[in-house]
Design a protein that fits this description.
single chain; about 75% helix; elongated
Length: about 300
């Protein structure tokens, strides 16, 4: 570090860094956020490499044995010789394998729906802010309509019409989530469009598309990133709720919500592990995402940057 850098206060050095580097430095300064990020990375890696980690494919009916159903944690499979560390469910599935595969579905649904909804909502929000007029009024009234209904009620109505399936659940979540991004993108774009750099770009002859995508959109990303992180957790929770209620993924593709639902009927029989361990996996995943999202919200909050 040079003599000049030593003479500068810490906050001055932080402001002199590039914006994204400053965000990274402030993010890792929080122990809870780092713990949440590490947990999230481990969860994603375990889910991604599930076929090479688990001892049983819970989707393959040929690998399941109903004689192994509802075995308590630590039970030994006499045929294969491996241990059911978390027990088995009512279909004889190893809960460790089922939870890891369930994480794949939950993460795929949550991240996939959030990303697609972010793209659609952001583009519509930018169009609404830039075009204005009746287009803005129409899109914002549609957003108000979507946000005025309870999400779970809307999801139940849509899935009752579409039916079960991972694709249908993702489509439902996209239809319900894009409005959050659209409203945020519109508000941020309206704020940015009044700044001097936008007027300067117009004066240099920058076209509308390049102006919106190249100049306004990058400055709208911080709040959208925060919403995206929190919406992923919200989508995973909603998918688990829908699967628990029987309108989410099919029985042949057990997500965490469906695993919890499968064990709920055995709770009074003292076979707690069937619902407990998938519930803990869901809880840890949601907490990890929320820890990351909360820290991003604090770091990217414009009021805290002043």
């Amino acid at each position: 570090m040079s003599i000049t850098e030593k003479a500068l206060p810490a906050n001055t050095l932080l402001q002199a860094q590039s914006p994204w580097r400053r965000v990274a430095v402030e993010f890792i300064s929080s122990t809870t956020a780092v713990v949440g990020l590490l947990l999230l990375v481990v969860i994603v890696l375990v889910a991604a490499f599930a076929p090479w980690i688990v001892v049983q494919n819970p989707y393959d009916l040929m690998q399941l044995n109903v004689m192994d159903a509802r075995m308590p944690p630590g039970s030994l499979n006499m045929d294969s010789g491996y241990t059911y560390w978390l027990g088995t469910d009512g279909q004889g599935r190893d809960l460790v394998s089922a939870i890891i595969y369930g994480l794949r579905i939950s993460l795929w649904v949550g991240i996939g729906s959030a990303l697609i909804a972010a793209v659609i909502g952001t583009l519509l929000g930018l169009v609404s802010a830039y075009v204005g007029g009746w287009v803005d009024a129409l899109l914002m009234r549609l957003v108000d309509l979507l946000l005025s209904f309870p999400v779970i009620l809307m999801a139940l109505m849509i899935l009752a019409w579409l039916g079960k399936g991972v694709g249908n659940v993702m489509l439902t979540l996209i239809l319900l989530e894009w409005a959050y991004y659209a409203r945020t993108a519109r508000g941020q774009a309206l704020t940015e469009s009044r700044r001097e750099y936008v007027d300067a770009a117009r004066g240099q002859g920058v076209g509308p598309l390049r102006l919106v995508i190249g100049h306004i959109l990058p400055n709208c990303l911080p709040p959208l990133i925060v919403i995206g992180a929190l919406q992923i957790a919200r989508a995973i929770t909603l998918e688990a709720t829908l699967s628990f209620l029987g309108l989410g993924v099919p029985v042949t593709e057990p997500s965490l919500g469906l695993l919890i639902a499968n064990g709920f009927q055995y709770m009074l029989s003292n076979e707690y592990w069937i619902s407990l361990f998938p519930g803990l996996a869901l809880l840890i995943t949601i907490v990890a995402i929320n820890l990351v999202g909360d820290r991003l919200r604090d770091v990217l909050n414009p009021r805290l940057q002043r």
